[in-house]
Amino acid sequence: MTTKHHDGFALWPTNTNSHWNAYRVGPKKDIIGELYEAFKLKHGLHFGLYYSLFEWDHPLYKFDKENNFTTRAYVNHVMLPQLKEIVQRYKPEYIWADGDWDTGYEYWRSEDFLAWLYTQSPVRDDVVVNDRWGIGTACKHGDVKTCGIDRFNPHMVEPFKWENAMTIDRHSWGYRKNADISDYYSTHQLVELLVETVSNGGNILMNIGPDADGSIPEVFIQRLTEIGKWLRVNGEAIYSTKPWKVQKDLINPNIRYTQKVGVVYAILMKWPNKLIIELHSPIVTANTKIFLLGYDREIVWQPIPNQPYGLQILLINNYMNHPKDFTWVFKMFYVE
Question: Does domain 242-335 have CATH number 1.10.150.650?
Answer without folding.
Answer: no
